[in-house]
Amino acid sequence: MSKKRIAVIGGDGIGPEVTKQGVKVLEKLGQITDLNFEFENFNIGADHYLETGELVTDEVKADLTNFDAIYLGAVGDPRVKPGVLEHGILLDLRFSLDQYINLRPIKLLDSKFTPLKDKEPKDIDMMIVRENTEGLYAGVGGFFKKGTKDEVATQEMINTYKGVERVIRYAYEYAQKRGKENKLTLCDKSNVLTYSHDLWQRVFKEVGNNYSDVEKHHMLVDAMTMKMVRNPEVFDVVVTCNMFGDIITDLGAEIQGGMGMAVSGNINPEGVSMFEPVHGSAPDIAGQNKANPLAALLAAAMMVEILGNPEEAQMIQKAINLSLAENQTTVDMGGKLTTDGVGDYICSVLG
Amino acid sequence: MSKKRIAVIGGDGIGPEVTKQGVKVLEKLGQITDLNFEFENFNIGADHYLETGELVTDEVKADLTNFDAIYLGAVGDPRVKPGVLEHGILLDLRFSLDQYINLRPIKLLDSKFTPLKDKEPKDIDMMIVRENTEGLYAGVGGFFKKGTKDEVATQEMINTYKGVERVIRYAYEYAQKRGKENKLTLCDKSNVLTYSHDLWQRVFKEVGNNYSDVEKHHMLVDAMTMKMVRNPEVFDVVVTCNMFGDIITDLGAEIQGGMGMAVSGNINPEGVSMFEPVHGSAPDIAGQNKANPLAALLAAAMMVEILGNPEEAQMIQKAINLSLAENQTTVDMGGKLTTDGVGDYICSVLG
Ligand SMILES: CC(C)[C@H](C(=O)O)[C@@H](O)C(=O)O
Ligand SMILES: CC(C)[C@H](C(=O)O)[C@@H](O)C(=O)O
């Protein structure tokens, strides 16, 4: 029986409420399977920042590397300037823990959730593999003659061979294993970004030589967004840079039902990974026991899967499918349950 | 009676066939209104490039500035390496003629054209104002240790105060005049692009001080794509940078019916502007008299409007609406007409 140590960062707003459901469900899973979880809460977020001025200290980062995974709720608080918590917590953790893969499944569970006409669950079922530590997110740039009419502002999109190679290789592996069509699409803007995305093109070809069984496709990012709303069924696994990944994963989240169902894994395959619902902290409904915990539960399922337990992950996934089919959901999803109520329902379905 | 001199660049593939319809319709318009057009054809495109090695020479560029507008079909040919014609013609013209505004109307004409559920023409009706000469399109960047495992590739997003100010001012003016809700949304990624999009944020506020009657909104690009497919009705005028504009205008084109209906104006308010259908050269159907000319006709209407004749532009627009309502369209749009047939129909409706 293997024990998994999970660091829980509830964070801000509805974050702690929804991760609480995840912890409850994982504890239940521990009772009925061979899995065993141990949780430790980390006090990271707006309150802690406003009290102490600290975001994530080096000590905390070092501590986090001792865990098997991080389970994150949400960060963001109206009392803190926009960007501060996102940079100081989310992006800082991704970068310092070198979580170079952002895994974003796009999977429609019921036709009623998509804003697209005539699309069924089988049509919207892809995995987006986003580079998570480079590109326009490098934070490199500057101002020249700032504040004058001659101002120039620059922002650098930086990619390294190492960074591009590892995410593309991961995506090929994923396409090989996923069991849909063994198809990988590179999404870029190589016709305009003739430096940074030329590197992506070359590496995609080079690494692809080792994956002759994977069907290779290319799509420019502008065409990609069109295809996603007209013919999402053509996609299996998609690999893309950090910035375009940010955009197309959110578009993907929407076509599969919106933020209530969207989950994000920040993966370091050789280190500690972090799993989170994509939604924000929703301060307006925090503490009212009405936040929808399904995305947080899907994040918990993804964590279980990436930790090497796909069958147990499926158990959570199936329980979630049932909650949707039976309308055992919160009000925003068409049901009548509280946040706690949904968590309890999932636990009861599990056994 | 004012004479407008139009430079026609038919270009590649279906380009010449569809601009031919536009010329025919404008000639007809000249017969029944006070407007008067004179056309000159420019031999620019793949054939010319393959014969002579020339794309757009300095002489041609100088000549083009003597026209009132440029009417472009499409560029792109399978015999030419991808990127060459796009850069050497499209982007080169935009940059050298300083067409700093890319105007992309997103307007649904009939519910049946959108892939979105439950959206009517009134719900999808916005104007995207894209910066067209800066940002990631600057073409600045490079390689370090190219071809090695230590390679670094950079691509610079460069914005100038001048470039950002003029497009934002244009967008405010547009929002004021457009007659929908006097609403302008800035779409950026200022929470991550803390240099280049910080400039956008500052200029948006500063210029906005002169437009107290325009309602100001801000949306991050990732959230923007979600909103566009879930609630496109919230948008009136949107202003954004070159790269994000490329992406969201194509997404916009799709939600209003796809490439068959999408049009793009490359505007230099103080110089010569260029109007084009958004679709490509579609070499597979070139020369078969079956290409859909409606986007090219919409581009002609936009040209007439920007040249200062909104009423005459409306005449073309109404004729197009009628052709859709009466299924007087090409096969891809559900009709039975040829390319020529659609042009003739529009002319006959005009009078
Ligand atoms: C909060 C923000 C910095 C973040 C990003 O841009 O990566 C978010 O949009 C995401 O996709 O996880
Ligand atoms: C062809 C390409 C270079 C161009 C662009 O990226 O601007 C096109 O996508 C457009 O939007 O007009």
TrEMBL record, chains A, B:
Mind telling me which Pfam families this protein's record contains? Iso_dh (PF00180)
Top-rank lineage group of the source organism: Bacteria
What SMART domains does the record tag this protein with?
Answer: Iso_dh
Q: Which UniProt keywords apply?
A: Amino-acid biosynthesis, Branched-chain amino acid biosynthesis, Leucine biosynthesis, Magnesium, Manganese, Metal-binding, NAD, Oxidoreductase
Question: GO terms for molecular function, please?
Answer: 3-isopropylmalate dehydrogenase activity; magnesium ion binding; NAD binding
Task: Report the EC code(s) recorded for this entry.
Answer: 1.1.1.85
SUPFAM superfamilies named in the record? Isocitrate/Isopropylmalate dehydrogenase-like
Which cofactors must be present for this protein to function? Mn(2+); Mg(2+)
- For the keyword Manganese, the answer is yes
Q: Where is the Isopropylmalate dehydrogenase-like domain?
A: 5-346
| Gene Ontology terms: biological process | L-leucine biosynthetic process
Family annotation (InterPro entries): ICDH/IPMDH (IPR050501), IsoCit/isopropylmalate_DH_CS (IPR019818), IsoPropMal-DH-like_dom (IPR024084)
Quaternary arrangement and interactors, per the entry?
Homodimer.
Q: Which family does it belong to?
A: Belongs to the isocitrate and isopropylmalate dehydrogenases family. LeuB type 1 subfamily.
- Protein's recorded name: 3-isopropylmalate dehydrogenase
Q: Which organism is it from?
A: Orenia marismortui
Q: What is the lineage of its organism?
A: Bacteria, Bacillati, Bacillota, Clostridia, Halanaerobiales
